[in-house]
Fold this sequence. Notes:
Strand content: 15-25%
Helix content: 25-40%
CATH superfamily: Acetylglutamate kinase-like
Radius of gyration: 17 Å
Amino acid sequence: MTDSPRRVLLKVSGEALMGDANFGIDPGIAVKMATQIKKAHDEGVQVGIVVGGGNIWRGLSASAGGMDRATADYMGMVATVLNGLALQDALENEGVQSRVMTAIAMHEVAEPYIRRRAIRHMEKGRVVIMVAGTGNPYFTTDTAAALRALELDVSMLLMAKNRVDGVYSADPRTDPGATRYDHLTHQEALERNLKVMDASAMALCRDNELPILVFDITAPDAITHALLGDAVGTLVSSTPTR
C-alpha cells in the first residue's frame, strides 16, 4: 500500500446477490462478498459500493410491459435499498463498520447520500454502501456508479460482472469465438459497443479519465484482488496501453 490510502468504488449488480437462485437474495453470497471486502478493508483500502436491484425488480422490463417508466424506475431504486441493507448486515457481522446512504430519503433505514459525509465515512474506515441509484428515473445504476465514483474521487471504478471475467469482443456465453481484452480505452469500448456499461456512464468515465476494471465476481477472492489493485479482469482507461 502507498502512503495515500487506496479509495475505490465497487459496483455490484443485484443479480450477483442471487447466487444460483432465480430471484431474491442469497445470504450466503452476501457473506462471501463481505468476507472478501473485509480482507481489502483490513489492508487500509477505502471502499464505496453501489449496488443494483435487478435480482428484485427491473424497471425497464416493467416499463416495456406497460408500466409508467418513472414509476418502474423508482420501484427499482427501492429494490436496491433491500440489497444494500443485506450487504450492510453481512459486513457488520464480519466486524466491518458500514453505512447505507440513499439517494431517496428513508431516514428510518439509511442515511441520506451527502458527498462530503460519504467521504468522511470512508476516511474513518467505514464501508459506504450507496443505494437508490442517482435518485432519478431514467438513469441506470451504471450511471450512478460512475457519478458516485467521480464525486468521491476514487482511483478506480470496479465493475463486478456475474460469471464473465472481463470484456469480450462478443458475449462469451453465447459466442465461443469471443476474444477477451486485457486492456482497451473508453473510446474503443464505446465505438465497438462492447457493453461494459451503458453508453452514458462510459462517456462520463471517458470524459473524466476514470479507469474501470471489469472482473468476474464469482472467481475465488476476486473482490479482494480487485480492491487491492491486483491484475485481474479487463482494464478500461484513457491510455492506449496497460
